[in-house]
Amino acid sequence: MRLSAPIFQLKRRAKLMARSNGVPLNAALDQIARDEGFATWSLLSARLTSGPLSETILSRLKDGELLLLAGRPGHGKTRLGLRLLIDAARDGRKALIFTLEFTEEQARNHLRTLEAGTGSVADRIQIFTSDQISADYIIQHMSGLEPGTVAVIDYLQLLDQQRSKPVLFEQLKALGAFARQTGVVLGFISQIDRSFEAEGKRLPDIGDIRLPNFVDLGLFSKACFLHNGEAQLEDVA
After folding, report:
1. Are residue 39 and residue 13 in the same domain, yes or no?
2. Are residues 14 and 106 in the same domain?
3. Is 233 helix (H, G, I), strand (E, B) or coil?
């Protein structure tokens, strides 16, 4: 059975129903599920595993979370981050990318290609390409945005490449506090150390994140690891 909308949009619809009708959220979720042909929301949500990964991630992100999107070069982490932004824009959210890798034209072309349509959704995504991108820069440009706004930072290891910027750990602490205070969602594209490929593991894990200097990865709430066409989204303990 095909859903009338992605699950994250159905969940948003249920929240609006609960607020406007004064009913508990679980009752609104079950009503949405019945409208879609399922007896309960739990049965409907089981479809998460069969939907596009970017939709799955968006539906599982709560306001104020920090997300890692990590993989070796060429294994889809940047593509997944851009798809996440397209899904957020389709859901009516503000979506932004702060990239130290792409030019604005390159980022826009990638977004339009991934949308595979008119480009109308991709064109709503804000793109920032300044060499000054850092925690302070991101906070400055996201201050005042509504909870649920999604931003992707491309990429984690470049945030403190310039010596004039604070060390990465301090920037992440500032961004984590900002996200919790404002309810925005921040996703960080991240490199995986090349030693992972010699270890024979199917997927990388939190211990494989490439970090030239110490960073408490417990600052992140969720992480998605990609390799060879496989991906796994997990909570960060």
Report:
1. yes
2. no
3. strand
Cβ neighbors of 154 (< 8 A, separation 6 or more) are 78, 81, 97, 98, 99, 100, 101, 102, 189
Residue 60 belongs to a domain: yes
**Is the residue at 199 inside a domain?**
yes
Residue 58 near residue 150 (C-beta atoms within 8 A): yes
Give the predicted TM-score (pTM) of the model. Answer: 0.80
**119 vs 99: CA distance, rounded Å:** 20
Query: Is the same domain home to 118 and 202?
Result: yes
User: 89 and 71, same structural domain?
Assistant: yes
In a domain, 102, yes or no: yes
pLDDT by residue for the chain (237 residues), tens only, comes to 566 776 677 888 899 999 999 999 999 999 988 888 888 887 776 655 445 687 779 988 999 999 999 999 999 999 999 999 999 998 889 999 999 999 999 999 999 998 876 668 999 999 999 999 999 999 999 999 999 999 999 999 999 988 899 999 999 999 999 999 999 999 999 999 999 988 888 899 999 999 988 899 999 999 999 998 888 899 996
* Cis, bond preceding 155 (omega within 30 deg of 0): yes
Task: Taking each helix axis as running N to C, give the angle between helix 135-142 and helix 168-182, from 0 to 180 degrees, rounded to the nearest 10.
Answer: 20
Q: Which domain holds residue 25?
A: 7-50
Name which of 226, 191, 187 is nearest 60 in CA terms. 187
